[in-house]
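FAQ
Q: What does a multi-component entry look like?
A: The components come first, one per line:
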Amino acid sequence: MKTSNPRAWFLVLPVILLVAFNALIPLMTVVNYSVQETFGDNLFFWHGIGWFQDVLGSERFHAALGRQFLFTGIILAIEVPLGVAIALSMPRSGPWVPICLILMAMPLLIPWNVVGAMWNIFTLPDIGLLGYTLNSILGIEYNMTQSPLAAWITIVAMDVWHWTSLVVLLAYAGLVSIPDAYYQAAKIDGASKFAVFRHIQLPKMKKVLTIAILLRFMDSFMIYTEPFVLTGGGPGNSTTLLSIDLVKVALGQFDLGPAAAMSLIYFAITLLVSWAFYTAMTKDDQN
Amino acid sequence: MLDWMAWTIPTALVFVFVFGCIGLLAFLEVRTPGGDPRHGILGIETTRGDRLFISILGTVFIMLAWLGLYGTPLWGGLGIAIVWWVFVWKKV
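Then the predicted structure of the entire assembly, as tokens:
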């Protein structure tokens, strides 16, 4: 018989305290900031819902939010299918497994700002390998400091380069957990490769893919360092994603009130999308 | 000690309300454990905690939408939010 002891909840207490200290209390402070105006010196004046009204009506916020959804949509549409495809073509056993895994894990180990700097140099038209090859050898005009399209292609390529591995590793973990009996049964039934993928591999990968998509959604929705180092939000404002804009407002202009209101709207959107997504993906398990 | 958090009475009341709700949930959980799961009209299983989460998150978006599309005063948004809470706790 299973015994249950509610006092076990005390074991969770340290985590609750830690989360309160590093997440909850700062978040409460942001809520407080969002309804006040400050001129520094820890002096605050009541401003009501004015900042929220400003942010919701601001063209700049709409544009940044639009760019953010576009960016996240593009990278998810590329990274998830690509990651699954790579995981499917990786060997399940033998000496190549560790080599593939290490190669895949490498981009994940590189810090964000280094990735940004690497791609910045890589794409410089005069000395960068990619920039020079495209401009001077292939004759394709490519300069991400001048063309918004080139800047977008670069940040998307960089994110795909950096993070597809995460999807690969998670999908691969799901794949190797499938017992051989499933494949043998499929072979006896004469199932096609696609049928095996559709009815065995994809359902078995569903859980890890949920986590992969959620992680990639949240990370890319909050992405800051890489595009900041790479393009600085430019040319113009064309790659100013939401968090870059937020930091400009909060630290560049030191408008803590509007920045707090913006963060809360940002947070609410992240929370809603993550919840909706998680609920939709785990719905079948409940039955 | 809490000066740096720049507290205001309205925001304090918001958090008192939220933590009050969580406290109430804890109380209900002790009395009838299991979270009262059920299948609502969204087609998903929700417990009391899920319903509180949906209610609060929905309220945030209702108020933001009201403020963005209509503006002040917010009474209309509050009315919709109350209807939303009743709907969530009855049907979802």
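Q: Is there any commentary attached?
A: Sometimes. For this entry: Residues 3-91 of chain B form one domain.
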